[in-house]
Amino acid sequence: MICPLCGTRRARRSCPALGKQICAVCCGTKRLVQIQCPADCAYLASAREHPAAVVVRQQHRDVSCVAQSIRDFSDRQSDLFFLIATTLVAYKPPELQPIIDDDVADGMDAMAGTLETAARGVIYDHRPASLPAERLVVMLKPLVEESGRGLGSSFEREAAAVMRRIADVTRETRAADPTNRRAFLDMLARVLTRTGAKDGPGPGSEEAPAAEASRLIVP
Fold first, then answer.
1. pLDDT tens-digit map of 142-182
2. Which of 162, 183, 202, 215 has CA atoms 20 to 30 A from the CA of 69?
3. pLDDT score, position 43
4. For residue 30, what is the DSSP state?
5. Cα 186 to Cα 73: distance, rounded to the nearest angstrom
6. Burial (CB count <10 Å: 0-12, 13-18, 19+), residue 159
7. Is the pLDDT higher at 156 or at 215?
8. How far apart are the C-alpha atoms of 11 and 5, rounded to whole Å?
9. CA 111 to chain centre
10. Mean of pLDDT values over 177-201
11. Which of 52, 65, 76, 44 lies closest to 160, judged by CA?
């Protein structure tokens, strides 16, 4: 039997959350991210005591990806990166209309274009191609505007660079895992879940930038 999550590896583990057989790799990397494991799951308990090598390697790749994403950012840009990342992970789309990495990249490109245009003194809203990406832009726009209130064109240029970086990293992460249409979003969820940022303040909270602490967590 082939694992229904990845569609490539053999399914050898019985998943109590999904009620079906899945492969060991998906069990290890999607646990508590895509799969809502029950507390009494034997694999979850075992993993907490003895993380598998594949999970440890995944954790290192995740943290390395985030570290590379913000490697040359200012503190203000890093704060904005984590504000957006936390909001993306916490985002609850309309039923039956989940977002995928392509929507994130599309939305970030559109927001970056709008900010770059504004920095040149021209007001023009760039629109993403997909409806889910449009919803993301509508949700994120007031958060970004509040973060840059009173900072002028310098913030607009810095924020646009953050958006472009997120779009690029989203595409790179997706290309590295072509079978997973949410490769980037899953990576963010794993990092923020491990650091506790995912369960922090919701979008719009004055404490939302506290996700900045995630930059200092190394497995």
1. 999 999 988 888 999 999 999 999 999 999 999 999 989 99
2. 202
3. 87
4. S
5. 23
6. buried
7. 156
8. 9
9. 17
10. 78
11. 76
How would you classify the pairing of strands 20-22 and 13-15? antiparallel
Residue matched to tokens 């497995």: 219
Q: What is the DSSP letter of 39?
A: T
Q: Are 12 and 23 in contact (CB under 8 A)?
A: yes
Closest Cα partner for 200 from 75, 82, 73? 82
Backbone torsions φ then ψ of 128, nearest 5 degrees: -70, 165
List phi, psi (to 5°) of 204: 90, -10
Report the distance separating Cα 35 and Cα 38, nearest Å.
Answer: 9
Please answer whether residues 16 and 38 qualify as being in contact, where contact means their C-beta atoms are separated by less than 8 angstroms. Answer: yes
Determine which of 38-47, 48-57, 118-127, 208-217 has the lowest per-residue pLDDT on average.
208-217
**Which residue has tokens 């491990």?**
194
Helices (H) and strands (E) in the chain, counts: 8, 2
Task: Specify the amino acid at residue 19.
Answer: G
Number of residues that make up the chain: 219
pLDDT at residue number 98? 84
Structure tokens of 115? Answer: 């900010």
**For the chain, how far is it from start to end, CA to CA, in angstroms?**
34
Beta-bridge partner residues of 22: 13
Q: Any bridge partners for residue 35, and if so which?
A: 31
